[in-house]
Design brief:
By secondary structure, this protein is of the alpha/beta class. The chain has two domains: 186 residues, Rossmann fold (3-Layer(aba) Sandwich), CATH 3.40.50; 91 residues, Pantoate--beta-alanine Ligase, Chain: A,domain 2, CATH 3.30.1300. 36% of the residues lie in helices and 19% in strands. The chain contains ten helices and nine strands. The strands form two sheets. It has a six-stranded parallel beta sheet, with helices on both faces. The protein has a three-stranded antiparallel beta sheet with strand order 7-8-9, covered by helices on one side. Strand 2, helix 2 and strand 3 form a beta-alpha-beta unit. The structure holds pantoate. The site of pantoate (PAF) has 10 residues, from strand 2 and helix 7.
Length: 296
């Protein structure tokens, strides 16, 4: 496995190092045989089973698998958890190797956002909803880094988890609107055995907060059960879920949305519906979602 962004001692490239990770990556890209299917798995590291499932899917579908690790500052607003975001580089590199990644590329702000950097990317119609209400900077930063990665890697396919449903929906829109020649592959969310959606941030939960956090998926599963029982009324489905939710969580939103454009579903739920939730357990912000299938 090749690594770009570490020196020979295995430590992250010092800021004094001369060759930029961008130039090195451009050389790598040029060295790839034309016609090979290149799969990209963008991550912020602190890899867990959810990320590994993306690498495995990329491995099944692509001749070359590249993983990126970069805690991208432009998607965090001041006061958010950029500094406390978990960083586990050694174990990430081991896991990437075990899963058969061909390349791991470690981003750094010096090379990606040099002095004078001024470009923005936005998909406001989709980004202003759900998480965008409390994190107005977030998806602009995600689009910016993902578009940069697509420019640099020119991947045939890029793999994103449906845990971040809004993120993958926005990226799909951006790729369509800007004619980016990369197929976006949506991969199913991975849960812990007790139902908690896997997230790099879960390691920051205390035992008590983790217990509370479990009620996010319980609330979603309660909606699924009522839905299977035939309830289609948004207010009663949400009311049922609210009764399951731990009252000590700080709820940001619990919404039923159209899965295609994330617009709110009101009244009676019809069509392709997702239920999305975001809440804080202590300092840790958590998101989860489920898709409701029609059972007739
Ligand atoms: O989903 C993530 O981990 C990040 O938002 C991404 C797509 C790697 C961009 O920084």
């Amino acid at each position: 496995m090749q690594i770009i962004g570490v020196d020979q001692q295995g430590t992250e490239k010092s800021l004094r190092s001369s060759q930029s990770i961008v130039a090195e990556l451009q050389q790598w890209r040029k060295s790839q045989q034309s016609g090979r299917v290149i799969g990209l798995v963008p991550t912020m590291g602190a890899l867990h089973e959810g990320h590994l499932s993306l690498i495995r899917q990329a491995r099944r579908e692509c001749g070359v698998v590249a993983l990126t690790i970069f805690v991208n500052p432009t998607q965090f607003a001041p006061g958010e958890d950029l500094d406390s975001y978990p960083r586990t580089l050694d174990s990430d590199l081991q896991l990437a190797e075990q899963e058969g990644a061909d390349l791991v590329w470690l981003g750094n702000s010096r090379d990606l956002y040099p002095t004078g950097f001024a470009t923005t990317v936005a998909v406001p119609e989709l980004a202003d909803r759900l998480c965008g209400k409390s994190r107005p900077h977030h998806f602009g930063g995600v689009c910016l880094i993902v578009l940069k990665l697509f420019q640099l890697f020119q991947p045939t396919k890029a793999f994103f988890g449906e845990k971040d449903l809004q993120q993958v929906t926005i990226i799909e829109r951006m790729v369509t609107d800007l004619h980016v020649d990369t197929e976006i592959v949506r991969c199913p969310m991975v849960r812990e055995s007790d139902g908690l959606a896997m997230s790099s941030r879960n390691v920051r939960l205390t035992a008590e907060e983790r217990q509370r956090a479990l009620s996010l998926s319980k609330a979603l599963f309660a909606i699924e059960e009522s839905w299977r029982g035939g309830d289609r009324m948004v207010h009663s489905l949400i009311e049922g879920a609210m009764s399951v939710l731990d009252p000590d969580l700080e709820l940001e939103y619990l919404e039923m949305v159209d899965r295609n454009d994330l617009s709110p579903v009101v009244g009676e739920a019809k069509g392709d519906v997702a239920v999305c939730i975001a809440a804080r357990a202590g300092e840790v912000r958590l998101i989860d979602n489920i898709t409701l299938e029609f059972f007739s």
